[in-house]
Amino acid sequence: MKNSKVVISSCEKDFILSCVRSGKRMDRRHTYDYRKLQISFGVDRGHCEVQLGKTRVLAQVSSEVVCPPPNRPSEGQLFFNLELSPMASPAYETG
């Protein structure tokens, strides 16, 4: 990810705040309306797809159990790797 913040203009900020205060939404839903939620699990272990309206997210989770080092038998390791598509935000880079 780039070392930058997403910056919006003061006009955009004012517009967003006025819409929130007046209960207006760009998609014409009311304040407490929600989009259809669908969660499905794939054939492969650890695969999940979530759809919220027209937004779709795919996730793949995997794990590996390994023995701890002999000098630290009660300790373990946990690593996370997250890859985000640049389509999610211009702030994300591939690789």
Automatic annotation (TrEMBL):
Subcellular location(s) per record: Cytoplasm; Nucleus
Cellular component terms per the entry's GO annotation: cytoplasmic exosome (RNase complex); nuclear exosome (RNase complex)
Keyword Cytoplasm: yes
Exoribonuclease phosphorolytic domain sequence ranges: 34-92
Domain of life: Eukaryota
Any single GO BP term: U1 snRNA 3'-end processing
Entry-linked InterPro entries: ExoRNase_PH_dom1 (IPR001247), Exosome_comp_Rrp42_subfam (IPR050590), PNPase/RNase_PH_dom_sf (IPR027408), Ribosomal_Su5_D2-typ_SF (IPR020568)
MF (Gene Ontology): mRNA 3'-UTR AU-rich region binding
Keyword Endoplasmic reticulum: no
Keyword vocabulary terms for this entry: Cytoplasm
A Pfam family hit: RNase_PH
Family membership noted in the UniProt record: Belongs to the RNase PH family.
Protein name: Exosome complex component RRP45-like
